[in-house]
Amino acid sequence: MKERLRAPKGFQDVIPPKTFIWQHIEDRARKIFKNYGFHEIRVPVVEHTDVFVRSIGENTDIVEKEMYTFNDRAGRSLTLRPEGTASVVRCYVQNGLYTMPAPQRYFYTGPMFRYERPQKGRFRQFYQIGAEAFGVDAPYIDAEILCMLNDFLSDIGLDGLNCEINSIGCNKCRPGYRQALKAYLLSGLDGYCEDCRRRYDINPLRVLDCKVPSCIEASSDAPVITDYLCDDCSAHFRKLRKYLDSMEIKYELNPRLVRGLDYYTGTTFEITTVHPGSQNAVVAGGRYDKLVEEFGGPSAPAVGFAIGMERLVELVSDMDIVKEPGPGLFLICLNEEYRLTGIRILRKLRFSGLWCEMGFGASSLRSQLKKADRAGARYVFIIGEDEIKAGRIKYRRLSNGEEGYLPLDDYENMARLISDERI
RNA sequence: GUGAGCGUAGCUCAACUGGUCAGAGCACUGGACUGUGGCUCCAGGGGUUGGGGGUUCAAGUCCCCUCGCUCACCCCA
Fold this sequence. Notes:
With 423 residues, this protein is of the alpha+beta class. The protein has helices at residues 18-35, 49-56, 61-66, 85-94, 139-155, 174-187, 194-202, 213-218, 231-246, 291-294, 309-319, 336-351, 365-375, 385-390, 411-418, and strands at residues 39-40, 46-48, 68-71, 77-80, 104-113, 125-134, 161-167, 252-253, 265-273, 281-287, 302-308, 329-333, 356-358, 379-383, 392-397, 403-407. The strands form three sheets. Strands 1-5-6-11-10-9-7-8 form an eight-stranded mixed sheet. Strands 13-12-14-15-16 form a five-stranded mixed sheet, sandwiched between helices.
């Protein structure tokens, strides 16, 4: 046998019935996000490499070793997007969307690419549903976004989720905290793991969410960011919590919640699942009040999030709450000649919006009924010698065996019947 | 990049310490039932046991290499 071709490592097919779950989740997100005034935008999958380097940060793992970067034929450095926010901000600035009344709210969905070692809940091509709100710094919009996420996740029936929030401060207050933290860590640096000693130089805040028990122990009374917030950040965070309380949205404060991307400021949040698997973050997001300026736009605060589709799909699949439907009709023609009548009926019914299938072979009624049953059809129509002679079609409802007849050209009532309406 | 585990039919998996072990279930196709499905029974197709090399009288089983998959670390959705 020839060697079979397979998708590249970390790239996967989504095939039925799984596709049905994807569609369900996307449909619900579209519906609910719309209720909150978010409009869909579609941005390219490829950007100039600089878009990501300047937003995500030069010294992050994503930029340093995870990007699919290549030169096009004219020698430009392009990159398959590793995340969505940078592209959306670029789009916002390029199209002058800041001239529209604030807030401007957008959502997007599509594949992201990172060259990582695949594992459970992590792929090289993975899908995100993301949303971004521009032009408003009021904490109300942070709360609104968390509320929207809450609606969405409970709408698709998920439980076992925790929402954690934090504020990582702004340009004014974070440096002070960073310094205090480094001073604290330095005093006992030998007690930390190798990774943490490395983190100390690169991103000391990361030490706080190390999983090694001894590190957790050693950093247990480290200074917390929330004690170092400036008045503005502190007030913003306090107000956000008030809004969440008022909307009865559950959350936990996690002063150790750090985001990996450089552009975050102020509010950050993460929604994690309690289900097994080490990739437990299903949603993550926060504020990025300076990024629009960095991209050459005006001063425009913003806040957004990204949902990991594969992780969500896995949780929804585990719950077995989405059922795959079957066709409304399975048409059986008992010989090739009757098929000429059959396909005419099929065309009409499909055009009227119904999912209809037909048996292709000239096999026995028995075997075709078996096919109809396995396809999960609601009704079977039979065209055979008796029916053609009498100018009518025989229908059978598979769930209860109820049978009857309709004129061969009475498409309207056929459609009603299949739709389970009264005829 | 680091570490561990695993590759047998389309899918899920059997085959005692190397000795008819190349099998079962599901799925698919057909039949029993010639115009009535779901249940049951029967039959059929489909695998050079991921690939290569080695040890042995004998390898799916042991050793080496390679490719692939999975999980974890790093990091992240």
